[in-house]
């Protein structure tokens, strides 16, 4: 064994990120459970981006080791800038393994984009080429190797350049999701006083959910009216694939052995019909929903409020009026009429019903809310 090879295997220069004695040489036994090489404990972090599951599994070296304070000696020394000759397996221009010991593994369940560049679903060995101004992050199709000794650029699935930034001191090398949104997240490697960030985004998170729903509906959920209704409501919320949503909503109402005619299923069908521009059919469906034995005055009131929020002012008023016919004088019928008339510009009727509602208010909280509503109606316009 050459001196250079032994140094790289034992100390992990540009690979393990730790100084060690010969006694910490990696344990390759497949049948024994031994401490991790170099005391670099294994770690992992997982984050969901919508339906996409992202996991980084790695071994974590530390700054202080064996009585040595290596602060200021990590970047550019322990982890050299650029590519390195590791002295083994003829890998003369090797990147850093972005952790310690075995490959750091980056796994995604669906296609994503890394800093705007596409990366297919799968498991990748994560490597980096460090630099003072930029780090090149490498996603290799080889994900089961030890370190970077078998790194082959022909196995690269993607390379992206990212800009390192100063950060608070971090003793242990750590991967962390520092920003999280429904369709994107930021992943950072943090060690010593440096942060190496990369963005992970999903082009169409709603489409992934829809494709998943389509498959699931062919299984047991397709025999549950509540699941069919929930799937239909998803298309209503996203405004996409409404034809499929209409079919699911109709099945939730009337499919043999599955359908259940109740306020929830019928009103969901009506909302999709309205979303698709069939106001006449929607109005008839809403009337049927309000006439359902399962309907309560609060159900129709909430439906009307939802339609107001969606901008369907005329249809919302019809719902509030139908609610008044079915449940005359009951709470919160007059509240709905006040909001419906106000949204449609009839201030006189809006104030009339708001004052009737104030007299019916069941508690101080509702009285306070109605007094504010009356004030808003008088000043106009009224928020939905």
Overview of the structural elements:
This protein is α+β, with helices and mostly antiparallel strands and 384 residues long. The protein folds into two domains: 190 residues, no CATH class; 175 residues, Serine Threonine Protein Phosphatase 5, Tetratricopeptide repeat, CATH 1.25.40. It contains eleven helices and twelve strands. The protein has a six-stranded antiparallel sheet, with no helix packed on it. A four-stranded antiparallel sheet has the order 7-6-12-11, with no helix packed on it. The protein has a two-stranded antiparallel ribbon with strand order 3-4. The radius of gyration is 31 Å and the shape is elongated.
Q: What's the short version?
A:
This protein is α+β, with helices and mostly antiparallel strands and 384 residues long. It has helices at 3-11, 205-217, 225-238, 242-254, 263-275, 279-291, 297-309, 313-326, 333-343, 347-360, 364-379; strands at 41-49, 52-60, 64-65, 68-69, 104-108, 112-114, 117-119, 122-129, 135-140, 156-162, 165-181, 184-201. The protein folds into 2 domains: 3-26 and 36-201, no CATH class; 205-379, Tetratricopeptide repeat domain (Serine Threonine Protein Phosphatase 5, Tetratricopeptide repeat).
Distance between the termini: 77 Å
Order of helices and strands: HEEEEEEEEEEEEHHHHHHHHHH
Structural class: alpha+beta
Question: How many H/I helical runs?
Answer: 11
Strand order of the largest sheet: 1-2-5-8-9-10
Helix content class: 25-40%
* Number of DSSP strand runs: 12
Strand content: 15-25%
């Amino acid at each position: 064994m050459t001196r250079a090879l032994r140094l790289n295997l034992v100390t992990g220069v540009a690979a393990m990120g730790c100084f060690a004695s010969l006694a910490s040489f990696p344990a390759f036994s497949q049948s024994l459970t031994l401490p991790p090489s170099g005391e670099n404990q294994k770690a992992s972090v997982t984050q969901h981006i919508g339906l996409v599951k992202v996991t980084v599994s790695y071994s974590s070296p530390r700054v202080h080791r064996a009585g040595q304070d290596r602060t200021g000696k990590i970047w550019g020394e322990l982890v050299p800038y650029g590519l390195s000759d590791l002295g083994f397996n003829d890998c003369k221009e090797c990147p850093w393994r972005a952790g310690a010991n075995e490959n750091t593994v980056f796994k995604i369940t669906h296609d994503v984009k890394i800093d705007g560049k596409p990366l297919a679903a799968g498991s990748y060995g994560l490597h980096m080429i460090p630099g003072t101004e930029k780090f090149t992050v490498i996603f290799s199709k080889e994900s089961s190797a030890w370190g970077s000794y078998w790194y082959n650029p022909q196995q690269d699935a993607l390379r992206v350049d990212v800009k390192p930034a100063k950060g608070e001191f971090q003793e242990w090398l750590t991967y962390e999701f520092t920003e999280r949104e429904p369709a994107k997240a930021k992943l950072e490697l943090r060690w010593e006083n440096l942060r190496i960030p990369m963005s992970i985004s999903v082009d169409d998170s709603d489409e992934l959910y829809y494709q998943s729903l389509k498959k699931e509906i062919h299984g047991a959920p397709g025999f549950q009216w509540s699941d069919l209704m929930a799937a239909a409501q998803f298309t209503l919320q996203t405004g996409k694939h409404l034809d499929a949503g209409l079919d699911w909503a109709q099945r939730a109402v009337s499919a043999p052995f599955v359908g259940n005619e109740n306020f929830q299923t019928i009103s969901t069908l009506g909302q999709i019909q309205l979303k698709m521009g069939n106001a006449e059919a929607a109005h008839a469906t809403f009337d049927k929903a309000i006439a359902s034995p399962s309907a309560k005055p609060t159900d129709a009131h909430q439906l009307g409020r939802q339609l107001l929020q969606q901008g369907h002012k005329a249809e919302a008023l019809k719902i509030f009026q139908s609610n008044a016919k079915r449940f005359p004088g009951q709470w919160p019928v007059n509240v709905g009429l006040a909001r419906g008339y106000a949204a449609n510009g009839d201030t006189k009727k809006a104030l009339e019903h708001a004052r009737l509602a104030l007299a019916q208010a069941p508690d101080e909280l509702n009285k306070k809310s109605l007094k504010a509503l009356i004030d808003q109606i008088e000043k106009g316009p009224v928020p939905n």
